[in-house]
Each structure stands twice: as C-alpha cells, then as structure tokens.
Amino acid sequence: MKYVKLVFIWLFSLFIAFIMIQQGWAKFGADGRWARSFAEWGYPAWFRMLIGVVETGGSLALLVPPVAFYGALALAAVMVGATGTLLFDGRGVDAVTPIAYTVVLVWIAFERRGTRVGSPKAPEQIRQSGSGRARGRHELRLA
To answer: Is the pLDDT of residue 94 over 50?
Structure first.
C-alpha cells in the first residue's frame, strides 16, 4: 500500500510540475495572454513575474523529495490566490481548476512532510554510510 501511495504522489507531482512549469514560464512574456490578464485584474508586472518564479521554482521543487513539501505549499498558496482572483473577477466556474490543484498540492505537502529538509523525521532517512566511503559521510535516501 505504501508503494501505491508513493506512485500516486509521484504521478500527481509530475503532472502538476509539467503543467505549472509551462504556466510559470509563460508568465515571463511581456506581450502574452498572462500579461494582459494580470493587467486586466489590476496586478503590476512585477507580481506576474513573481508568480512565474514561484510557479516555476515550486514545480521544480516538487520533483526533489527533501524540498517537495515547500514547493507544494508555495504552489498551493499561488492556487489559493488564483482562486480568489477568479472568484473576484466573476469567473466562479473557472475557479474549479485551481481549487482542484490546491487540494492535490496540500495532499502532496502532507505526504511529503516527513521527507522535508528540517523535518524531525528527516534524520531517520540519513544513514551512516559504510562501504568504503570516508568516515563521517552521510547518505541521503530519497523516498
């Protein structure tokens, strides 16, 4: 059962990372759809760039288990903001997608909480390595 859960964590992480990297990267274009949308919503250009950085960075973080928890939380925060923006703009039906992403991202963060950097569980994953390596080195096992 643990294996099946890990497969689903990775499948959802890969899917969301694939989508969010594309969407985050698209926010850097000054003349694209996102530039027009952010301007219509009254957000400054620097905010669009910040969202692009968070989406791109958070997506990459989802693919690295020790920081996937933080990437999932950052992306979930962006999705909460996207939901609020769409609801405020009167596009309630369109808000279903960021709500769904938020639910999945919070689940990923919950499941990855034990593998995060700084987690109390993290030391369990660091094993003293033997096998001919220099004394005192540690090996990080990525779950």
So the answer is: yes
